[in-house]
Amino acid sequence: MLGEQIIKGMAVTARNFFESYVSKDRLTTVQYPEERLPQKGNTRQFPFLVYDGDDWEKGLRCVACQICEKECPPKCIYIVKSKDKKPDYKGQPQIYPLRFDIDISVCMSCSICVEVCPFESIKMNTEFELSTADRFGGLLFTKEQLAKPNSYYQKVHPNDAAESDAVIASEKAKAEAKAKAAAEAKAKAAAAAAATAATPVPPATTT
Length: 207
Ligand code: SF4
Ligand code: SF4
Known about the structure:
Blueprint: H1 4-19, E1 47-51, H2 56-59, H3 67-71, E2 77-81, E3 86-87, E4 93-94, E5 97-103, H4 112-116, E6 122-124, E7 140-141, H5 143-146, E8 147-149, H6 150-156, H7 158-198
Parallel strand pairs: 1-8
Antiparallel strand pairs: 1-6, 2-5, 3-4, 5-7
Helix pairs in contact: 6-7
The structure holds iron/sulfur cluster (2 copies).
Residues 62-68, 79, 117, 119, 121-122 line the site of one iron/sulfur cluster.
C-alpha cells in the first residue's frame, strides 16, 4: 500500500521518542562529548605510521618508497628520502623517510595509501578530534606525530593488525630461511674449495 513504509517508519520514530523517557536503549543519540559510542571495527579517519619496538625512529616500517605519495588522490603526502640506510624488520638495509608529512586538512580518508603500501607501514587511525585554531600548520602532521606503535594498531584495528603481523612474520621467516640457505651454500662452496686445494697433484709422467 502506498505510504505503508512511511507510516511504519514514523511508528518506529514515535516509539523511540516516547520510550526513550523510560528506556535508555531507545535513545538514538548520546550526549557527546560526555558520552561516546564505541567505534566500529572498520572506522577510519586519517592515516598514521606504524613502528615496531620502543624506538619510533628506528622501528618505523616505512622505507620511503613513495608509492603512497604517488597514489594519494589529493596529493597530501610529502616524503623526503634519506641518503643513508637503516635495517628494516628483516634486517635488510633500507632507506627511510627523512621527512614524512600528511596534510590532514586535505586528506579525504580514502585509505588508498593503506591499500598500496607494500610494507604494512601506513594504516588508518580512528582518532577524529583533531580540530585546531591553526588551520594550516596545526593540521600538517609530521612523521613524529604520525608514528604510532604496533600495539596501538593492535588496539584500534585488532583483526587487521593480526593480519599485518602474520604477513610480517611470514616475510621474516622467508628472509631468515633464505639467509640460512645462502650461508650453508657459502660454507659448502668454501669446504669444496678447501678439499680441492688439499688434494695432492699427481707428478707429471715422461714417455
Ligand atoms: S587517506 Fe587518501 S587522501 Fe588521505 S593520505 Fe591516504 S591516500 Fe591521501
Ligand atoms: S608508507 Fe608505505 S607506501 Fe608510503 S612510502 Fe612508506 S613504505 Fe612506501
